[in-house]
Every structure is written in structure tokens, then in C-alpha cells.
Amino acid sequence: MTESMNNQNELPESVSASSPRTHSIDISSLTRGDHQLNIENEKIALNVNDLRLSYGEKEALHGVNMKIPQKRVTAFIGPSGCGKSTLLRCFNRMNDLVDGVNIQGQVLLEDQNIYDRKVEVADLRRRVGMVFQKPNPFPKSIYENVAYGLRIQGINKKRVLDETVEWSLRSAALWDEVKDRLNDSALGLSGGQQQRLVIARTVAVKPEVLLLDEPASALDPLSTLKIEELIHQLKDDYTIVIVTHNMQQAARVSDYTAFMYMGDLVEFGDTDSLFTNPVKQQTEDYITGRYG
């Protein structure tokens, strides 16, 4: 799986040979098995209204408005420093941990503003789980990594823990690989296995939304493929938002894509349309490799 899009001689079917594109997205990777997606027909998981975020005097997000549909995969693309990860971290208030941050606007989860003072952040993060770029298993056994969130909630019945650990590892396509060594240290797993373990740990507490911040960027191609296949499986049960620098990956795994630049949401739409027929010239320039 290449990070760069170097098929310069292969143009999408919807683009004429005279088009000045320098790169292309593989159209075969855009097959969804769905009818044409339309955000207006979707149930909405997260509704972002005029979201602004500043670090001190520097505004990093400039009035972002978007709707994240339920049980779909939404990808954020754009050059480094454009605000993708900052926006993602707004959805479970991870930016609250940054000194000097100021956030204005709304992020609605089931019509409740997650930035309302009445919202318990710990409860929010159980509903909106996050997986980071670098796998971060705890220095505990594989079993205890998955059971950790349940124990925090006061769930300690062995039968419940056993069933949930197995279900979570199966959900993360990891059970068959680790079922005979659940008491071994999670740190002994490969990088790809560790990332799937972290996903299992996240889904164990039954979140509604999964946030994935470059989940495969540190992995080898085979592990990346497993993570992408896992994303396809998980979207049947979860709303997934993924940040990725790899546009081929965004094209493969997502239903909707948001292109960001310099803190602005430039364009948002169904992935097929955005990659093959972008509305904004700036989007066209980015996905064809003219900058970024």
C-alpha cells in the first residue's frame, strides 16, 4: 500500500485524458456497494456548528460546520498542520488537556452540546472512544488491557469480563491470534496486533463513535490492510471518523471525506464524488498532488 499516488498515467474514468491531473485515485477502490450517498439522507451522529479553536492567539480552526453521519466512515484529509487531528480531538474533548486552548461553537452528540458544562467528560469519552497514531497498550496482560475500561466502571464479575474480552478481541479481528496467550504481556505483540488490541480495548466499553487518528501510519502494509478491513467491519456498529495522510486509504475505507486546509473545512462530501469530481479547485489541486 503506497503512501504516494504515483499512477500518473492512469486517469479516473470520469476524467478526460486532457485533464491536467498529475495523480489519480483508483476508481475500483471507491466501490461502496451503496447507492449514491447523500448526507441529507443520513442519521447524524455528530453535528458541528461554527466550531472555533485557538491556541493562545493562534486560531487553529476557523468556524467549522459539518455533519458526521451515523455508522459511516468519515475521513479527514489535508496537508500536515491543517487542523485534521485538532478537529478530531474536539469530538471527545482531548483538546481540553492543552494549556491555553479556547474553544467556541458547538459539537452536538444526540442533540447535546458536548461542551456544555453539565457534560461529564469521562462519560463522553466512554461514548466517543479514540485510537491514536502510535499503539499505546498498557503494560499489562492482553486480557487486562481489554478489561481495563470495564474495571474502571466497577465491572468485576469474571463471567462478564471473560465474555466481553472475547467479544472485543473478536470484534478487533484479534481473538484467534491471542486466545491462547491472554495472560501474556500486551507489549509482546507486534505493532499491528497492538493497534488492534487498542481498538478492542476501546470497543469493550461499547462507544457510539470511534475516532482513529492515523491508525495505520506506523504499521507495515499487511498490518495496514488488516486495520482497513477491520474498519469496514466495525462501521456496521460504530460511527467512525479517521484522520489519514494517505489519500488512497481515505478512498478505500471512507464513505464521506472532508478536505481541510489551514484550519478551514474546504470541502465535505461523499468520497466518490469528492475524489472524482471535487467542487472546489483547491480540493482538486490537493488530491492531484499539486501541493501538500
Explain this structure to me?
- This protein is an alpha/beta fold.
- The chain has 10 helices and 10 strands.
- The chain has helices spanning 84-90, 121-127, 142-152, 158-171, 175-178, 191-203, 221-234, 247-253, 271-276, 281-287; strands at 44-55, 58-69, 73-77, 101-109, 112-113, 128-131, 209-213, 239-243, 256-261, 264-270.
- A 6-stranded mixed β-sheet has the order 6-7-8-3-9-10, sandwiched between helices. A 4-stranded antiparallel β-sheet has the order 2-1-4-5, covered by helices on one side.
- Strand 4 (101-109) and strand 5 form a beta hairpin.
- The longest helix has 14 residues, at 158-171.
- The chain is globular, with a radius of gyration of 19 Å.
- Residues 1-31 have low confidence and may be disordered.
Produce the secondary structure layout.
Blueprint: E1 44-55, E2 58-69, E3 73-77, H1 84-90, E4 101-109, E5 112-113, H2 121-127, E6 128-131, H3 142-152, H4 158-171, H5 175-178, H6 191-203, E7 209-213, H7 221-234, E8 239-243, H8 247-253, E9 256-261, E10 264-270, H9 271-276, H10 281-287
Parallel strand pairs: 3-8, 3-9, 6-7, 7-8
Antiparallel strand pairs: 1-2, 1-4, 4-5, 9-10
Helix pairs in contact: 3-4, 3-6, 4-6, 6-7
